[in-house]
UniProtKB/TrEMBL annotation:
The keyword GTP-binding does not apply. Transmembrane segments: none annotated. This is Mitotic-spindle organizing protein associated with a ring of gamma-tubulin 1. GO terms for biological process: gamma-tubulin complex localization; microtubule nucleation by interphase microtubule organizing center; mitotic spindle assembly. Its main location: cytoplasm. It comes from the Eukaryota. PANTHER family: MITOTIC-SPINDLE ORGANIZING PROTEIN 1 (PTHR28520:SF2). Coiled coil: none annotated. Keywords: Cytoplasm, Cytoskeleton. It holds the Pfam family MOZART1. It comes from Operophtera brumata (Winter moth). InterPro entries: MZT1. Belongs to the MOZART1 family. It is found in: Cytoplasm, Cytoskeleton, Microtubule organizing center.
Amino acid sequence: MTSEKNAQVGQAREAFQMMYQISQLLCTGLDVESLSICIRLCELGVDPEVLATVIKEIRKMGETAAQSKPTNLQS
């Protein structure tokens, strides 16, 4: 790899780490892989606000499913 490519890779890693730190400070609940997917989707033209809404709705659906799941308690 050329030194220019190495510099670009280093800058991309640094930028991603900053975005991940911001994500953690904002308590988004996104892990590294999820954040990476969201960034790639935005780079492909997905509206970030729409993406955030979809993530919130999916989380709500997961919470609802978890709450309605019967617990298997035997006496």
